Amino acid sequence: xxxxxxxxxxxxxxxxxxxxxxxxxxxxxxxxxxxxxxxxxxxxxxxxxxxxxxxxxxxxxxxxxxxxxxxxxxxxxxxxxxxxxxxxxxxxxxxxxxxxxxxxxxxxxxxxxxxxxxxxxxxxxxxxxxxxxxxxxxxxxxxxxx
Length: 146
Description:
globular; mainly alpha
């Protein structure tokens, strides 16, 4: 009988090369997702304002000093940690990875509903963010098999 859950997975069994590649692929997917594919929609529903108070969602120009690369560095670290989670979970059980993906996406978006009262704006933002999280999760699960 096939074992459903593996308990012999260790960090030493992770393919670190594929892990690093998957982090950059997922990060690159985010760059495309939040610029080319859904950038304008995301900025609008988030009602994005820069530090100087300019409302980017209304087309105002941000004149304050750019904080790059700090936001990108923190985002890369977060992406890497999520990837590591999938590289540990997937060899144990792909279904465990799917459950974690669904649970995390549902929990974060349900918390967002407390911040956004307008239903259409909430659905748009949740769809963009959850869609990206599912794509990133799939990238990490697939790469963890290489």
